[in-house]
Specification:
The complex is a heterodimer of chains A (247) and B (91).
Chain A lengths: L1 E6 L2 E6 L4 H5 L13 E4 L2 H17 L9 H17 L4 E3 L3 E5 L2 E6 L6 H12 L3 E5 L4 E4 L4 E4 L14 E12 L4 E5 L1 H9 L8 H17 L2 E6 L4 H10 L4
Parallel strand pairs in A: 2-3, 6-10, 10-12
Antiparallel strand pairs in A: 1-2, 4-8, 5-6, 5-7, 8-9, 9-10, 11-12
Chain B lengths: L1 E2 L3 E6 L2 E6 L10 E4 L1 H9 L6 H11 L4 H17 L3 E2 L4
The chains are: A alpha+beta (247), B alpha+beta (91).
């Protein structure tokens, strides 16, 4: 089976092995007969590769190894191949939780387990209907002359929070846990290490070079913040006000 | 000597940073912060250069004697070599 899909504005035909992906990526399909810019084909060895990567990540993060299903691993393989190509269209995968409030995107990045998703759940409580989840785990960032846009994708975390929308990025916040809620502005140069740690690194040399160039552009174009926060609702208000110039 | 292919140097917020976008296991993972002089030396080394050529470029850019330029260049090159951003070439 090979349907066509669109993620962050990139139209891609995907030849894959398991039906599960069609259900997983529901809402991102292109109508039949549309032209595509990229093609991806998944082979059994791509799924084995993901199995090994996932096991290595579990070991590295000190978790008991989990047995992942092939259909799930296939979704990872598809995203890896897609992101490798997307970078050449100026689209980056950024590991973060992204939420839109009043049409602008706010992104929270931190090492796994820090509590990005928990913090963003406080935003949903605070802002109600004004807030729309873009992607709780792996949004795409489209870097353009007009600005940087956060785009929803089906790869949106274990709670499947997200939607097929895109919004201009108002700010990116590097998050750490703390007793009190405090936010400060970071210069791009100071945000760079935290930013780079959460951006997908392509394998190919041309892609890698482009990824670095885009990361530099990102660090220059987008306002960055460092948020230290607890799990009370006040944390969301402090972050929102800080990211909107109330510093 | 020459900077490795794939090393990018960028000015940001009045500082300079370098990253290694090359492939291979010896790739430097991380970000190098540089001052103006280090960035100047690194940018010169994006083309293969001898020490003499480098010293000449530095005396043109900065108001220094060849001796001071050479001393600075050697220090910068030592640091860049230590983190693996420079490949061997003409001495």
């Amino acid at each position: 089976m090979a349907k066509a899909w669109q993620f962050a504005g990139i139209r891609v035909k995907i030849q894959h092995l398991y039906d599960y992906f069609d259900e997983f990526a529901l809402g991102y399909e292109l109508p039949e007969g549309e032209s595509v810019e990229e093609e991806i084909e998944i082979k059994p060895h791509d799924i084995e590769y993901e199995r090994e990567r996932s096991a290595a990540t579990d070991r590295a993060e000190g978790r008991a190894p989990v047995s992942y299903s092939d259909p799930y691993l296939e979704t990872l393989a598809i995203y890896r191949k897609f992101c490798e190509k997307a970078i050449l269209h100026d689209v980056l995968l950024f590991h973060a939780s992204a939420i839109a409030v009043d049409g602008k995107a706010y992104l929270f990045a931190a090492p796994s387990g820090t509590g990005k998703s928990t913090h963003v759940s406080l935003w949903r409580e605070c802002f109600g209907d004004r807030a729309v989840m873009i992607n709780d785990d792996k949004p795409l960032l489209r870097v353009t002359k007009e600005g940087v846009f956060a785009c929803g994708t089906p790869w949106n975390g274990k709670h499947r929070l997200g939607s097929n929308i895109s919004a201009e990025v108002a700010g990116i916040c590097l998050l750490k846990r703390g007793e009190i809620n405090q936010i400060e502005r970071l210069r791009g140069v100071d945000a760079l290490p935290g930013l780079m740690a959460q951006i997908f690194m392509p394998e190919g040399e041309a892609g890698r070079q482009r990824m670095m160039e885009l990361t530099f552009q990102l660090a220059k174009k987008v306002p960055f913040f460092q948020l230290s926060c607890n799990m009370e609702k006040e944390a969301a208000m402090v972050a929102f006000e800080g990211m909107n110039g109330g510093l | 000597m020459k900077l490795k292919d794939g090393v990018l140097i960028q000015e940001m917020d009045g500082k300079f940073v370098a990253v290694d976008a090359g492939s291979g296991p010896e790739r430097f993972h991380g970000i190098v912060n540089m001052n103006h002089t280090a960035a100047f030396v690194a940018r010169q080394l994006q083309k293969d250069r001898t020490m003499e050529e480098l010293v000449e470029a530095m005396t043109q850019e900065y108001d220094v004697t060849p001796e001071v330029a050479r001393e600075n260049a050697e220090k910068m090159i030592g640091q860049l070599t230590a983190i693996g951003l420079i490949t061997e070439g003409q001495p």
